[in-house]
Amino acid sequence: MMELSRREALKWALVGGGSLLFPWTMAKPALAQFSPQIPRFELTFKIPPVLNPVRSDRDTDYYEITLEKAKLEILPGLTTEIWGYNGITPGPTIRQRGGNRSSGGKESVVRFINKLGMDGQGREIQTTTHLHGMASLPQYDGYAEDYIPDNFFKDYFYPNDRAATIWYHDHALDLTARNVYMGLAGMYIVEDQYELDLPLPKGEYDIPLILQDKQFAVDGSLIFDDLNQRSLYGDVMLVNGVPWPRLPVERRKYRFRILNASASRNYHLVLSRYEESQSLGDEMIVIGSDGGLLSSPVSLTSPFPTLRVAMAERYDIIIDFSEYPLGSEVYLRNIGFTGSIDTDMRSHTLMRFDVVKNASDDEDIPSILRPVKPIDIPPDVTYRKFRFERNNGQWKINNKRLFVKRK
Ligand SMILES: [Cu+2]
């Protein structure tokens, strides 16, 4: 496609009735406005605060999180209402000691208190919490209709038996996309003794990167328009809730825990020394995925392959900034389909790392991270086939529709 400036694109869209230049997912309503424009790579990178337990006993840590609305300054000078865990988005990070009980692993109980109240249409905001990646018992899994009523709480019990980067988010029937988009998402990190003993970057060098895209109205409010459950692509890229942040880094290794908490957007991530194009030889080393540490690290060196991160997926990566001279600017770019209404590539670049300080580390990424036992598949195993699709506006599995009785 031709490269068009924002203004030209708008003009052409008006001429073409909004249908010529844009894929069908970008229907007319989304074209009505772009988010307020802000300069990129100026806002300070933020790390969601780590939540302390309200109490602990020998086997269990107990946490409390309140779901509430808040008004935040996300775009400079504007106020945005969000629905957040403890009034922030992303919510606080839970960093939980897990794994074997014999080596210090603990269970956790998280009390989620619903103080969200009503949505813009005057309906009670229904919510339930799913801890995505935890093998929770059914009663703590956050089924889509297992609501926490307004002004009630629910205690969720988590075994923490596998070390991994996982996340908690709203899971309400039909409204998950909206509720997560409004802010109900947070990271939950399970660590065990085995992983803590490995020479991987820790503490301030172990950083979450929660990726989201959103669309804002001129007054700063969030626009949620999923085009009747088809898709939603924003034109503002946020990392840990901050649009296009810049992170000053030292010349050493960092571990980043990447979570795609976007509604529809897939990422094909690469590092680049250029803001709007690829440089060669920039390396990300993948050490973990949804299930925790990989058996061995995998090096991804630009331009290909890229790190593909689908919605809700997590990847843990190492970036060694000692590969870059002091003063370098390194961009985290998404070279995949941007899907958004922005035609000037702004959504292709998510954040910038500024290499500002000499440093050293003695972390040597081990060639074996965690030996993974292959699964033995018994010879008499039964195979079943599930076909997921949507037709005539209905979601179906094997051509059957789940019948849901609405109140
Ligand atoms: Cu999930």
What's the structural blueprint in terms of helices and strands?
Blueprint: H1 6-15, H2 28-31, E1 43-44, E2 55-56, E3 60-72, E4 80-85, E5 94-97, E6 107-114, E7 129-132, E8 153-158, E9 164-170, H3 176-181, E10 185-191, H4 193-197, E11 206-214, E12 236-239, E13 242-243, E14 245-251, E15 253-260, E16 267-272, E17 283-289, E18 292-301, E19 307-309, E20 314-320, E21 329-334, E22 349-358, E23 388-391, E24 394-397
Parallel strand pairs: 1-14, 3-6, 5-10, 11-15, 14-22
Antiparallel strand pairs: 2-3, 3-4, 6-8, 7-9, 9-10, 11-12, 12-13, 15-20, 16-19, 16-21, 17-18, 17-20, 21-22, 23-24
The chain binds copper (II) ion.
Textual characterization of the structure:
The chain folds into three domains: 1-32, no CATH class; 43-197, Immunoglobulin-like; 201-358, Immunoglobulin-like (Sandwich), CATH 2.60.40.420. The strands form five sheets. Strands 13-12-11-15-20-17-18 form a seven-stranded mixed beta sheet, with no helix packed on it. Strands 1-14-22-21-16-19 form a six-stranded mixed beta sheet, with no helix packed on it. Strands 2, 3, 4, 6 and 8 form a five-stranded mixed beta sheet that branches. Residues 1-31 have low confidence and may be disordered. The N and C termini lie far apart (46 Å). By secondary structure, the chain is mainly beta. Strand 3 (60-72) and strand 4 (80-85) form a beta hairpin. Helices cover 6% and strands 36% of the residues. Residues 130, 132, 169, 312 line the site of copper (II) ion.
Number of helices: 4
Instruction: Assign the CATH superfamily of the largest domain.
Output: Cupredoxins -  blue copper proteins
Low-confidence stretches: 1-31
Question: Could you say what the CATH topology of the largest domain is called?
Answer: Immunoglobulin-like
Query: Level of helix content?
Result: under 10%
Strand order within the widest beta sheet: 13-12-11-15-20-17-18
Q: Tell me the quaternary state.
A: single chain
User: Whole-number radius of gyration?
Assistant: 22 Å
How many β strands by DSSP?
24
Largest β sheet strand count, sense and barrel closure:
7 strands, mixed
Task: Please write the CATH class name of the largest domain.
Answer: Mainly Beta
| Overall mean confidence score, pLDDT | 90
Distance between the termini: 46 Å
Order of helices and strands: HHEEEEEEEEEHEHEEEEEEEEEEEEEE
What are the bound molecules? copper (II) ion
